[in-house]
Amino acid sequence: MGIDGDAPVPPDRRFGEEGGRLSYGGYLCLPALLSQQQPQSESPDELLFITIHQVYELWFKLLLHELENAREAMFADELWRARHLFQRVHAVERVLIEQVEVLETMTPQDFLEFRSKLAPASGFQSVQFRELEFLSGLKDERYLGSFRHAGDTELARLRRRLDEPTLWDAYLAALSRRDLPVSDDEIMGTLLAVARDRGSHDDLWQLAEDLLTHDETAAQWRMRHVQMVERQIGTKSGTGGSTGAPYLRGRTRLHYFPLLWELRAWL
Ligand code: HEM
Ligand SMILES: N[C@@H](CC(=O)c1ccccc1NC=O)C(=O)O
């Protein structure tokens, strides 16, 4: 009998053990992964704080990968593939928002036990977060200044993102493939034409909706983050040197694809 109570599995159906070289922990590099949580204090909640951030960074890595592939699919005129990838991006982004709740189980008093150890570190210095913004079209070179302490490879990654095409550039390429004009003067007319003739352009319309959802969920995360910040530190300034919540509130009004929002007014 197997450990699960079933009859033993015949040898020809024992799947995945052919080479016998991989183990669960080896495949997932768990010894390396699980040795990377190093609290700076004795405070019991610091492990939660580190874990949450590391999980975010892992999701950011996946999002960058999927968004790069979605961009490539749009350039290759494989809109179905881009749409498929955006569904995954949206699902991950919803998890990012839900996850804030886990960190909110920490009380502000418990956070203050180790907060002073964190400065001048802050989310400002998340390279992958800024890469996501740049790739999505929000290219603000001024943020390179917050990475003075980052390594050369990280700075080079950010510079490369500033030079690379954005998701919007890739969408414009998809429109051009259909012989739709995309110059600054003509783009709103094209977006309206797509919206009004879904019989001919439904895939382009749905893809624009996917971009908009990506934009909307990013904004929802920013709002959720600032709510958490107000709950944790109120009106205190940030460890990264900003005004804290007021700075972050300002960032909630940003859009990756402003024309897709403006389009609503013209429909
Ligand atoms: C106790 C929880 C948290 C507090 C009090 C907090 C506070 C802040 C503050 C005050 C800032 C502004 C920069 C500064 O001056 O420090 C900031 C920025 C940021 N935080 Fe957090 N944060 C928290 C959790 C998180 C988590 C879990 C993430 C996930 C990765 C995160 C990601 C970021 C990012 C990416 C920025 C830069 C945002 C931008 O420039 O638009 N934060 N945070
Ligand atoms: N900026 C936060 C501290 C903080 O949350 C943080 C500190 C180090 C690394 C990541 C952080 N997360 C988001 O800003 C604060 O001012 O309390």
Automatic annotation (TrEMBL):
Pathway listed for it is: Amino-acid degradation; L-tryptophan degradation via kynurenine pathway; L-kynurenine from L-tryptophan: step 1/2
Q: Which Pfam families match?
A: Trp_dioxygenase
Note whether Cell membrane occurs among the keywords.
no
UniProt-annotated binding residues for heme: 225
Q: State the EC number(s).
A: 1.13.11.11
Keywords, ordered alphabetically? Dioxygenase, Heme, Iron, Metal-binding, Oxidoreductase, Tryptophan catabolism
Its recorded reaction(s) are: L-tryptophan + O2 = N-formyl-L-kynurenine
Q: Does the keyword Heme apply?
A: yes
> Could you say which cofactors this protein requires?
heme
Checking SUPFAM superfamilies in the record gives: Indolic compounds 2,3-dioxygenase-like
Residues annotated to bind substrate = 49-53, 115, 239
- Cofactor, free-text remark: Binds 1 heme group per subunit.
Q: Which domain of life does the protein's organism represent? A: Bacteria
Q: Which HAMAP family match?
A: T23O
Give the protein's biological function.
Heme-dependent dioxygenase that catalyzes the oxidative cleavage of the L-tryptophan (L-Trp) pyrrole ring and converts L-tryptophan to N-formyl-L-kynurenine. Catalyzes the oxidative cleavage of the indole moiety.
**Subunit-structure text:** Homotetramer.
Query: What protein family is recorded?
Result: Belongs to the tryptophan 2,3-dioxygenase family.
Q: What's the protein here called?
A: Tryptophan 2,3-dioxygenase
